[in-house]
Amino acid sequence: MQDGGIVLSMRNIGKEFPGVRALQNVDFTLRKGEIHALMGENGAGKSTLIKVLTGVYTLDTGYINIDGMSKAAKIRSPQEAQSLGISTVYQEVMLCPNLTVAENMFIGRGKYSFVNWGQMSRRAKKILDNLGIPAAPSQQLASCSLAVQQMVAIARAVDMECKILILDEPTSSLDEQEVAKLFSLMRELKSRGVGIVFVTHFLEQVYEVCDRITVLRNGELVGEYKVEDLPRVQLIAKMMGKELGGLSEIMAKKAETGEFAGVPVYEAAGLSSAAGTKPFDFSIKKGEVNGFTGLLGSGRSESVRAIFGADRMTGGRVSVNGKAARITKPIDAMKLGIGYLPEDRKRDGISADLSVRENIILALQVMKGFFRPFSRAKAKAFADEYIRLLGIKTASADTPIKSLSGGNQQKVILARWLLTHPEYLILDEPTRGIDIGTKVEIQKLVLKLASEGMAITFISSETEEMLRTCSRLIVMRDRRIVGELNGEDMTQDKIMRTIAGEAPDNA
Amino acid sequence: MLKLKETARKNAQLLFPLVSLFAIVIINLIVEPNFFSLELRVNNVGNTVLSGNVISILDNGSELAILAIGMTLVTAASGGQDISVGAAIAIAGGVVLRVLCGNEASPDILHAPIIYAFLASCVVAMLFGAFNGVLVSIFKIQPMIATLILFTSGRSIGYWIGGGQIAKISEKQFGYFGGFIPGVPVPTPILIAVLCMIVIALVLKFTNLGLYTQAVGINEKSARLNGLNPVRIKLLAYIIIGFCVAVAAFIKVSRMSTINYSSVAQDIEMDVILAVAIGGNALGGGKFNMAGSIIGAYTIQALTVTLYAMPGVTSESIRFYKALVIIILVVISSPAVKSALEKLWAKLFPKKSPPVKEALV
User: Fold this and answer.
1) Contact B226 A363 (CB under 8 A)
2) Which residues of B touch A394 (CB under 8 A)?
3) DSSP string for A249-292
4) Closest of B151, B140, B106 to residue B269, by C-alpha
5) Is residue B352 part of a domain?
6) Which of A393, A23, A97, A46 is nearest to A214 (CA)?
7) Nearest-CA residue of chain B relative to A18?
8) What is the distance between the alpha carbons of residues A81 and A87, in angstroms, rounded to a whole number?
9) Is B222 in Cβ contact with A351 (below 8 Å)?
10) What span, in angstroms and rounded, lies between the C-alpha atoms of B234 and B137?
11) Measured in Å, how far apart are chain A's first and last C-alpha atoms?
12) Do B354 and A20 touch (CB under 8 A)?
């Protein structure tokens, strides 16, 4: 690690929105050749700070100094930020999927109207090889994996001679191998003296790759720490502003759950769907929390979508509470007491322009029927009840859901399904991209609901989280169930062995 | 206080259409101080009726307002517009004439009760609406392309349905719907438009039409996972606009007692779409404001009437002046100007301190 000079210093940064003080007196320092984690819960001000730095927002107070220049830098637009050597790679890749890799690397950068395709392609190849990115310049971007797309975005930034690279939650949709590839790329850039700001919710990753951590809370600076000086528990405590007692509580609660008796709430035999799951058997009983685990693309989401009728069913038999049932579309499942929180909140979950209230009542309203709308008062009462119950942070029930933070949006969708009082609730990645505090809250809630008799399927990319909450794990590989683990078999090691096909006693 | 604020915020969308309408009225008042004057006079069939500029705007804007109701729903649910409403009016009008006149060009007695003609045209117009709806919802064709088919062919279809002739109805009663009912001084189209508004207000209040169309228009995938059937809801929106077309066509035919298939309701689709846009509705679908669209419709009608009253504006040149005013309206309401105005406002009236501290970012 070359501990070079300071490449970026932000001092006294303040930013206000109508009625909201998003940032207040925040300092941030980035050195050459360092990977610096920016941590905080949802709503702590990470995104705002980054948007100020990249010129999406203009700051109200404070100044930004870049590369030790004597004058404060003026960043009024993303273009200006770019010309100062600040590049950003967002969670969702912001490139053009239908152009080639090379085109994506050079688009919008030329000063001239003419393109020398041959030269562009050669140059792209050189950069890709140099950084060890497994993509061909002439390949269409959409045909690359998400990780490679992200790397292409980074390569573009590197070629623009960026001194400051901001990675905003780059790993949330990558699997472990892809994350490893991304990290080696980050280390490579670090050795070249690029300062990297790394925003993530994954604590593991912070400790794996970062040198320093800056923690924000409620728009204010908590402090800057060296990674080795800040153990995990302390980091969480600093982000939340309180000691973390929830996790041990969860473990204690889970221990109480024993065997499950009675008729399965939901049972499927040979179920398969148009989305390409292989026929599978599955059943869940009252009060049980089970999980589907497997690598990204193993078919865990497709399986639960098949259960809910989100994809067309192509075969199999289903029974609910012992009675044969037909689920061909979501409303069938809903009427049988099944709820489903989808994996991709933005794409499948929220109705962005509708209010929090409308988002909460939507599912129940649809079940009630076209000609029987809830009165305004009733809808408001429902919304207020769940806003309080789940601690949803929103200005009011009439606020559009899109202006809430990710974690709070997720709570709204959770509220939507809790309001329907399902007997069986499917939660696909309910904790993705949300802060650790809310994660713990959701896990606690899951166990509480189960103890009240709800059957729950809980899916998470973080195996640790599933081990904490589930009493049974279904392991998938290549859209097929390859094993089922419970009791003492539920360990990280066993899961990996089962995925790899090395657990003969279970499969 | 809080409630007042809430109402104000919710109706902020109405501000722009109201201000535009107001501005047009002010201009009229400057040019013609008696703009608002109403008078009772006896018309050529011996009825005592109200007349004046305002009445004329409301009367002639009826079809526009009725169509704007349907267009708002279509826009919200399908994220696109139905450009075939003018042509569909020719079809619905053709049905009315055919049912009433049969194969005669100018019958002495009507072949069927007027209500039958109206109901028949409703059924036909709703079927054609469903045709558009199927193309949009099941075949997932972009609304403008899907409705382009009927836009192109509708006037010919209307001509065929009408029996290939231009029939004329001399029955006095038939003229009531586009003119006056004896003893009622208000033009009937105004009453029909008000009736339509009451109906849609009740439908929006006592059904989930509003919530469902918006949910589908904002996020179809999420709507489906919440148990909605987006295909059915889009289809419903197109069938509703079909009904609106039938009502508008009925008024149009009644006004003239006949129909000119090639020119009836010409270009009305553009005025209707514009009404929806002026009403502050995103043409990309999603959230909608019905009141805004209706005010938008009357704004456009007021503009047309105003321009005709201006010295030097002829029927040949009116389109240019109309376009001129519309570009001003649209630019003023554009996001760029809006944010610039907001900034100016913030500069002129700087806020002391924010009342709440809530990080929503």
Assistant:
1) yes
2) 360
3) HHHHHHHH-----SS-SEEEEEEEETTTPPPEEEEE-TT-EEEE
4) B151
5) no
6) A46
7) B354
8) 7
9) yes
10) 6
11) 46
12) yes
Interface of B with A in 225-264 (CB under 8 A): 225-229
Tens digits of pLDDT across chain A (507 residues): 444 688 898 999 998 876 667 888 899 999 999 999 998 876 688 888 998 898 888 888 888 888 877 777 788 888 888 888 888 887 666 778 888 888 888 877 766 666 778 888 888 898 888 888 888 888 888 888 777 888 888 888 888 778 899 998 887 767 777 788 889 889 988 998 899 999 887 777 888 899 999 999 888 899 999 989 888 777 877 876 655 455 555 555 554 555 677 889 999 999 998 887 889 999 999 989 999 987 766 788 889 999 999 998 888 999 999 999 999 999 999 999 999 999 888 889 999 999 999 999 999 999 999 999 999 999 999 999 999 999 898 889 999 998 888 889 999 999 999 999 999 999 998 987 777 788 888 898 999 999 899 999 999 877 778 888 898 999 888 788 888 888 778 887 788 778 777 654 443
Distance between CA atoms of residues B222 and B227, nearest Å: 9
**In this complex, do B208 and A19 lie within 8 Å of one another by their Cβ atoms?**
no
What CATH number is associated with residue B126? 1.10.3470
- Any domain includes B331: no
Strand intervals (E) in A32-109: 35-39, 61-66, 86-89
Whether A310 sits inside 8 A of B224 (CB atoms) is: yes
Does a structural domain hold residue B218?
Answer: yes
Cβ separation of A373 and B361 shorter than 8 Å? Answer: no
Q: Do A370 and B209 touch (CB under 8 A)?
A: yes
- B7 inside 8 A of chain A by CB: no
Q: Does B183 touch chain A (CB under 8 A)?
A: no
Nearest chain A residue to B214, by CA: A354
Contact A310 B357 (CB under 8 A): no
Q: Say if residues B128 and B88 touch (Cβ distance below 8 Å).
A: yes
**How long, in residues, is chain A?**
507
State how far residue B201 is from chain A, nearest Cα, in angstroms. Answer: 14
Contact at CB, B354 and A21, closer than 8 angstroms: yes
Is B345 contained in some domain? Answer: no
Task: Count CB-CB contacts under 10 A for residue A129.
Answer: 10
Mutate to test the interface with B, among A353, A356, A380, A408 (most CBs of B within 10 A): A353
Mind telling me how many Å the CA of B225 is from chain A's nearest CA? 6
Count Cβ atoms below 10 Å from residue B330 Cβ, excluding itself. Answer: 13
Partner A contacted by B286 (CB < 8 A): yes
Question: Which domain, by its residues, includes B112?
Answer: 15-300
Interface contacts A/B by beta carbons within 8 Å: 124
Q: Measure in Å the smallest separation between the Cα of B57 and chain A Cα atoms.
A: 34
Across A360-464, the runs of DSSP E, i.e. the strands, are 424-428, 455-459
Q: Going from the N-terminus, what domains does chain A have, and what CATH number goes with each?
A: 6-243 (3.40.50.300), 245-337+423-507 (3.40.50.300), 344-421 (no CATH)
Nearest chain B residue (CA) to A49: B361
Contacts of B228 in chain A (CB under 8 A): 331, 366
Residue B63 distance to chain A (closest CA, Å): 28
- Look at chain B and report how many structural domains it folds into: 1
Q: How far apart are the CA of A346 and the nearest CA of chain B, in angstroms? A: 9
Which residues lie below 8 Å from residue A262, measured CB to CB, with a gap of 6+?
Answer: A285, A286
Identify whether the C-beta of residue A89 lies closer than 8 Å to the C-beta of residue A166.
yes
CA A468 → CA A72, A254, A472, A477, A481, distances in Å? 49, 8, 11, 22, 21
Dihedral through CA B249, CA B252, CA B258, CA B264, nearest 10? Answer: -80
Using an 8 Å CB-CB cutoff, list chain A residues near B77. none
Which amino acid, A369? G
Task: Give this complex's ipTM.
Answer: 0.85
